[in-house]
């Protein structure tokens, strides 16, 4: 109990009081009507800890989606720091009048720290997904991060937090897919790479830094684009990435995918030759893309100073896919930042 209190005090001491600007409005450029992107959830969706609106997850995903689709994107963020799954119903109520085309929900960490039973938390989450789907909104849920990698949390509490957060993520996958949404596993996005690089953490050691948020956004973006029919992509500076698909029973998929960064889970109900209806899950490994520099509308100036932060997501993917020595990989990260 004393260890948990000390960790919470450290986080609260360094965590900013105010959320960054929402970033609501038009991002990117292109032709046609703007795609309406809703950002829902907790501080991980808000981007708590960053100072520049162009470093927030919503703006990063909006800019990337505009780049992939060739259309402007109108961002509407209703996420609030400290939100738990039980708060999603109000967020859905707030966002539906904006008629979103796709909603990204990032939720779960506060449910874990509040010790909310995963069955209870995911009941709220599934209800929110169903409301959005009934309104014709595509839904992408970034599952609970792995809190076992958060530095201020000491052992043995850290191991307990890892188990709790993985249980939450697995339950989220089942609930969301059954409700008609799709999930992206960010459980290990706060994993080995975050453990190696302090640059990916903000001062409180609990929330990501701008580079950390960029890494998470680069994993979420492919699923958002895929939901709207803008993935895979093939030519130009952003190149097509390999997608590995395989079908499994949903219950089997959830536990495995909750621990694999960037694993996307969707499902379909199929009917076999004997008339039996089964829900099969499809697991896709949508690898991250380099994020474009966010800009407001067509006339806004780009931000060259953001290039280094936004490129870290690709370096993370390379580090996770290789068996390189951590020291060597860390050097590669520094080299990437200096360009």
UniProtKB/TrEMBL annotation:
A GO molecular-function descriptor: phosphatidylcholine lysophospholipase activity
Biased composition (Basic and acidic residues): 1-16
CDD domains reported in the protein's UniProt record: FeeA_FeeB_like
Classification via Pfam families: Lipase_GDSL_2
Transmembrane annotation, as ranges: none
Alphabetized UniProt keyword annotations: Hydrolase
Gene3D superfamilies: SGNH hydrolase
Entry annotated with the keyword Hydrolase: yes
Coiled coil: none
Alphabetical list of PANTHER family matching this protein: SGNH HYDROLASE-TYPE ESTERASE DOMAIN-CONTAINING PROTEIN, THIOESTERASE 1/PROTEASE 1/LYSOPHOSPHOLIPASE L1
Protein name: SGNH/GDSL hydrolase family protein
Lineage: Bacteria, Bacillati, Actinomycetota, Actinomycetes, Sporichthyales
């Amino acid at each position: 109990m004393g260890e948990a209190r000390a960790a919470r005090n450290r986080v609260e001491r360094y965590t900013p009081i105010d959320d960054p600007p929402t970033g609501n409005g038009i991002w990117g450029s292109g032709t046609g009507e703007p795609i309406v992107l809703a950002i829902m959830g907790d501080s991980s969706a808000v981007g708590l800890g960053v100072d520049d609106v162009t470093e927030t997850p919503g703006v990063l995903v909006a800019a990337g989606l505009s780049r992939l689709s060739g259309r402007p994107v109108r961002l509407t963020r209703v996420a609030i720091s400290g939100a738990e799954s039980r708060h999603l119903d109000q967020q859905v109520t707030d966002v539906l009048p904006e008629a979103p085309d796709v909603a990204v929900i990032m939720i779960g960490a506060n449910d874990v720290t509040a010790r909310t039973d995963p069955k209870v938390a995911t009941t709220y989450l599934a209800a929110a997904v169903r409301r959005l789907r009934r309104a014709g909104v595509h839904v992408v849920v970034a599952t609970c991060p792995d809190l076992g990698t958060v530095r201020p949390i000491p052992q043995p509490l850290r191991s307990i937090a890892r188990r709790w957060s993985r249980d939450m993520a697995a339950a989220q996958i089942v609930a969301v897919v059954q409700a008609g949404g799709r999930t992206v596993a960010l459980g290990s996005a706060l994993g080995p790479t975050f453990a190696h690089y302090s640059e990916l953490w903000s001062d409180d050691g609990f929330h990501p830094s701008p580079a950390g948020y960029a890494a998470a956004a680069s994993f979420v973006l492919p699923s958002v684009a895929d939901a709207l029919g803008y993935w895979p992509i093939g030519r130009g500076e952003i190149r097509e990435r390999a997608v590995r698909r395989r079908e499994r029973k949903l219950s089997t998929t959830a536990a495995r995918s909750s621990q694999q960064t960037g694993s996307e889970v969707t499902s379909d109900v199929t009917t076999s030759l004997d008339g039996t209806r089964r829900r099969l899950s499809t697991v896709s490994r949508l690898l991250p893309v380099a994020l474009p520099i966010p800009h407001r509308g067509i006339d806004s100036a780009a931000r060259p100073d953001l290039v280094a932060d936004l490129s870290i997501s690709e370096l993370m993917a390379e580090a996770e896919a290789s068996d390189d020595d951590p020291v060597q990989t860390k050097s590669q990260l520094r080299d990437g930042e200096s360009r």
